[in-house]
Amino acid sequence: xxxxxxxxxxxxxxxxxxxxxxxxxxxxxxxxxxxxxxxxxxxxxxxxxxxxxxxxxxxxxxxxxxxxxxxxxxxxxxxxxxxxxxxxxxxxxxxxxxxxxxxxxxxxxxxxxxxxxxxxxxxxxxxxxxxxxxxxxxxxxxxxxxxxxxxxxxxxxxxxxxxxxxxxxxxxxxxxxxxxxxxxxxxxxxxxxxxxxxxxxxxxxxxxxxxxxxxxxxxxxxxxxxxxxxxxxxxxxxxxxxxxxxxxxxxxxxxxxxxxxxxxxxxxxxxxxxxxxxxxxxxxxxxxxxxxxxxxxxxxxxxxxxxxxxxxxxxxxxxxxxxxxxxxxxxxxxxxxxxxxxxxxxxxxxxxxxxxxxxxxxxxxxxxxxxxxxxxxxxxxxxxxxxxxxxxxxxxxxxxxxxxxxxxxxxxxxxxxxxxxxxxxxxxxxxxxxxxxx
Length: 438
Prior knowledge:
alpha+beta; about 450 residues
């Protein structure tokens, strides 16, 4: 089965083009079988009948009237009648019409006939029906008598096919363009910027779909804004009592004892981290992308996270790439710290090609089972047992990574290293050509 890939407009136009081609082919075959071949046969029979009549009449006429008859046949039937045996080469042709004409003449004269040709005519030698020694040569045009009808028929079919294809393309384009705009708007929408309404146009069903999408985007944007405002308010309100609790803890540390005080301080720090991560997840980022020298930016970023991480680099190094620096820093920091927390031994591998920059964060831990590699990106999802023990963390680190990657058009996927550890790959698509740094 043939599968077409590409946009709706391309695929549907291709289907209509194939359908039009099939219609054109079947029409041409039908015209050839039902019109052209019968026309050829009828034209050959008519031409053979006229040649036979001209030959018989010529031999029956008195000698003094034959010159006048030759002129009449030439004017009325475009036939050249001659008793002079002209030395001409044997005729060669590709058109089947002349084969049909020869067969028709053989049937009428009861003997094989010979064809010759000159520059503009075919000639046939005919025997004398009266049995005399005089033979007759009759010349006729080498043009096909049915060719005009055939060309007209083919032209009508081809023009009709072109009209069908153009009409189909215009109709499909009228449907595909609003759908393409809706698709592009859906890909751009992340709820972090003001949504530009999609123009409501096209057929009724497309207009209804577009209007519903616009309303849905407005509702989602309002929902995200309300969620961010709610969590920001909660975060602000919680931080105040947390600060008072820290102050009270420091004042009463001697009465509580160092062990209890340290445990309470740790709990307060975790609560503060949870509030901060929850707010960051809800807020996302409003950062604007900019072009940065990737190699120096990346190595500086990794050194700031941990100085003992080895980096393996494949591909060019001196180039610029467009990305949001703070968001990318947050993504890489979360991945590295997560790997350090659960495995301890972390390495990085960067692969650069013409289309992508792939950053791999690898560890030597227990790895993540394949069925869990999608779930770990959910907010507050914990899988400590598979990563080597019980850890106290918010469960938002990978969720923030996933959200930032989705916001800026990056991709993130979890794989496995050769030793069974985890390999998290963040891929940046090079939507614009990278500028090489001299």
